[in-house]
Amino acid sequence: MTEDNLIESNLTQGNLATGNLIPENLASENLASENSTQGNSKAAKPKHIILTSHQHRGKAVPIHWGAENPSDRGPIIGSIRNLQHRNVIGTHAGSYGVYRALAVASGDLDPTHKADLTNTSPPVQIGPYPSWSDPDKIVSLDPFGAFAGNVFTDYESEGYDILPTIAITKAHINLPELKEAVAQGRITVDGKLLKSDGNLLVTKAAIDPVWYLPGIAKRLNIEETDLRRVLFQQTGGMFPELVTRPDLHVFLPPIGGSTIYIIGDEKAIVDPTKPLAVRVHDECNGSDVFGSDICTCRPYLVHGIEVCIQTAQEGGAGVIVYCRKEGRALGEVTKFLVYNARKRQEGGDRADAYFTRTECVAGVQDMRFQELMPDMLHWLGITRIDRLVSMSNMKYNAITHAGIEVVQRIAIPPELVPADAQVEIEAKKASGYYSEDEVLAAEELAQIKGRDY
Ligand SMILES: [Zn+2]
Questions:
Q1: Per the residue annotation, which of 142, 349, 366, 375 is the catalytic one?
Q2: Segment holding 317, helix H or strand E
Q3: 81 is catalytic
Q4: N or C: which end of the chain has fewer CB within 10 A?
Q5: Do the Cβ atoms of 263 and 257 come closer than 8 Å?
Q6: Distance 297 CA to ligand 1 centre (A)
Q7: Catalytic site includes residue 368
Q8: pLDDT tens per residue, range 162-201
Q9: How far is CA 135 from the centre of its chain?
Q10: GTP cyclohydrolase II domain location, by residue (predicted)?
Q11: Dihedral of the CA atoms 216, 260, 207, 299 (nearest 10)?
């Protein structure tokens, strides 16, 4: 009996051990004919499953995290088209992997579809930088993620499924506040970077998370075995390989990724003679997109973009790092519960109770783990930030602890803080966020109130 047979189970017999259930016939070339003989016009309904929680004999390429050369490092293969090739836990595209499953289950997506990467390569080159081969500097993304389609062509031709985890492109973005900034003379239309119609030219990079588990554990100062066990438990047992496959060190977690917006010449980012502005912004859909006035997120984000434009127009560059960590990575449901709790508490929404209300609902004030965030700055080769547009002490500490020098911190200008967001900003300043203003005493903090709904 072969090893593969040993780990084969049969759905119809209900013989399901704990494990990730991946249809055996996804890797089969005669999937289509099997489906047709089953008379199934829509979804593939496989009989057999293979548990990925056990090691396969096979052709998985080892990953040498931190290797200088991508061919020594090896490709990240999270595709499920061929189980024997997989060298990671999880699948590509973060949380969107679940939608891919729905597309396959509903018959909309052929599970054997292979991505055609023609003309998808980056229009500009970022890196490689020395930080890319420092296993302590980058642990939560694949620094070679944008090169995958170009450098692993040998594997591609041998049938391995190579998918980039980073994509880089260019765009024109247009924010109405920038026109206001031009009208007030804070930035100028130069016709190249910022056009007269308000269009701002940017280069942007989308980054999916790729976690090197030993490095994540080290960064968080915990044991890798503890990290793996708790990740397994707290996802409801979603990834058994976390506990059964110590030979797999890389995890593609089902979470949102990040987007980097580069304003100005990307080469200026690593030029020590040129200034660099950076804002690291965590997603706040309510404010960023819909303009909710309970927080400072969009005004501060746009101010960050404005500082980036000013810095780029001085010959430097600006970088906005936008992370999908909605509601301090607690999620929008928790965030809205907290809004209600804040508005309805005795005495109304008050700055002195701002963090307490979050902690009551979520158990913690914040789950963003800024310790992982500097990886994106290291990916860009950043060693010095002249203007850090952030008041967050957690972000500042993470960046400086990662060995990146911060020359100047830029707080949100007071006139940009919406009236109802005074609660948030004063509470944050009192808790240690950077500010040039005086921090309010406890009694004064209790007097800072937001409105009812
Ligand atoms: Zn917000």
A1: 366
A2: strand 317-323
A3: no
A4: N
A5: no
A6: 4
A7: yes
A8: 999 999 999 999 999 999 999 999 999 999 999 999 999 9
A9: 19
A10: 267-410
A11: 80
